[in-house]
Amino acid sequence: MSDTHRAIDAVWRIESARLIAGLARIVGDVGLAEDLAQDALLAALERWPESGIPDSPGAWLMATAKHRAIDMHRRSKRIERTHEELGHELDTQQEMTVADLDAALDDDIGDDLLRLIFTACHPVLSTEARVALTLRLLGGLTTDEIARAFLIPEATVAQRIVRAKRTLAEARVPFEVPRGADRTARLSSVLGVIYLVFNEGYSATAGDDWTRPALCDDAVRLGRILAELAPNEAEVHGLVALMEMQSSRLRARTGPSGEPILLLDQDRGRWDQILIRRGLAALARAEHLGSARGPYALQAAIVACHARARTADETDWERIVALYDALAELTPSPIVELNRAVAVSMAYGPAAGLKLVEALGSEPSLKMYHLLPSVRGDLLLKLGRPSEARPEFEHAASLTRNVRERELLLDRARSCLNGTSPR
Amino acid sequence: MRFMMLYKPGKEDVPPTQEHMAAMGRFIEKMAKSGALLATDGLQSSSKGARVRIASDGKFTVTDGPFTETKELIAGFAIVQAKSKAEAIELAKQFLKVVGEGESEVRLMHDQPAFEAEPTLQFSREGERQRAKPTARG
Questions:
Q1: Which residues of chain A are within 8 Å of residue B122 when distances are taken between CB atoms?
Q2: pLDDT tens per residue, range A273-309
């Protein structure tokens, strides 16, 4: 790749979301806006290698995309579309200088970006479609990058995006920020999409890598953007806090040959203090804004207990149990219960934890969840019952699709045989 | 990937004008809104600082500012998250355009585990991305 191409790539990464958002407001259609932005990118790829990169590349792309929109509008004038407004806006803006455009891009784009996020995560779309569209439109990722991140064929991603854009158009989803009663549900959809992306990066469900840090970075970045756009939403800051603090441990989570290192075994000196500080600040904002902590702020508060402990022994497990109690009350789920059981075992001993884990044994939704037998094995081992622990680790290993995780679990199973504990 | 950008104005450390400060403030706000900026700060005049050196015999030398090698003086730093070095370079250009002069040293930080088994996504398939250009956006 030439330097210019690399630079164009970078410009796209920086400018594309704002570009698409600004265009979507004008043309009222996210799919069309993206097509226009892509056209502008192609024009840049043709022209910039010769002409050099313009002074304000974002404004150049915007101006080019707008000209395409005007051409298209004129050509399709016969077809009655809802473009009267578009024509008017385009005509009045036609004479704007590049500097004007640059300023407009800087000043007014915030609301458009927020509209774009809400549209990409619209409930009319499937979860997979929301994820793909969000990474594509807001994260500036290519179809190919999304495909590689989620280990799915590129054609599948491309199809998902095409369908998603069509669905949005057919459902006539307005390009707007939801207000009133709708807003909370819509916001939680947005947060859910971002957190899903983060989690796939943080503990990849499948594949050879234990983590995919690039995906975590994308998710945290989306979260930070959202926090700037919707600064009064406590749960947005809660989610950002959670992701920043989880990210702070990424580099301590993997050993020399790519093997997972579990929380209590990590070298805390390798935790990223900048991200911890950012996370604690975001948590403080969330707690300041919200009268009661929401599920993300609660999870962030749990993670903060780890972040604040200088050694594993200093962890305030009783406080973590209390926070899990609150979380279980707010969003009851077997997975929360399982995590609570782990915290209980750390605060009040493995026997107390095991009792809670056993109660989850019949939970159908955890039947295929590898962490249930993994936790049970861990607690049995701590209680000095390695012969019972071994089949649990083996069972857990058979359930995970992540190669690194499977190796770790099989290691633990083997260690039950010769009586040494890897912990 | 994270990069540290070290800004060197290339001249004596005179404090920036109000106008400069305001322009930089706007730029920093824009960067924060893009989710790329992790940390940033400006440094005061080198006359308020010192240089501490250790010699091979273990002896320390402390030299109070101001320092005379004006070209090398650092006036501020930023830590940004970017997908590639090219993106960090673009951000550095945008910053320099705002401040109008000087140099920004762009350095990759130890983001990943120091001995990571797998390269990051971004670079593992660099060759493929190249072949797929320019239609890879599709």
A1: 214
A2: 999 999 999 999 999 997 789 999 999 999 999 999 9
Per DSSP, A260 falls in state B
DSSP annotation of A121 reads T
- Chains A–B, number of C-beta pairs less than 8 Å apart: 111
Torsion angle of C-alpha atoms A94, A98, A103, A105, degrees rounded to 10: 70
Mutate to test the interface with B, among A38, A105, A111, A148 (most CBs of B within 10 A): A148
Q: How many CA atoms lie within 13 A of B76 on its CB side?
A: 18
Cross-chain Cβ contact B87/A14 below 8 Å: yes
- Judge residue A158's burial from the number of C-beta atoms within 10 Å of its C-beta, 0-12 exposed, 13-18 middle, 19 or more buried: middle
DSSP at A1? -
Q: Give A171-224 pLDDT, tens digit per residue.
A: 999 999 998 888 889 999 999 999 999 988 887 777 777 778 888 999 999 999
| pTM greater than the 0.90 cutoff | no
What is d(CA B118, CA A87) in angstroms, rounded to the nearest whole number?
Answer: 51
**CA–CA gap between residue A234 and residue B132 (Å, rounded):** 42
* Cβ B11 vs Cβ B99: under 8 Å: no
Q: What are A205's strand-pairing partners?
A: none
Nearest CA in chain A to B40: A274
Rounded to the nearest 5 percent, the helix, strand and coil shares of chain A are: 75, 0, 25
CATH of domain B2-137: 3.30.70.1060
Instruction: Give the residue from A199, A247, A197, A204 showing the smallest Cα distance to A219.
Output: A197
Q: Which amino acid appears at position A389 of this protein?
A: A
Which positions ≥6 away from A401 have C-beta within 8 Å?
A205, A206, A207
A318: amino acid identity, one letter: E
Distance of CA A297 to the CA centre of its chain: 16
Q: Which residues pair with B54 in a beta bridge?
A: B60
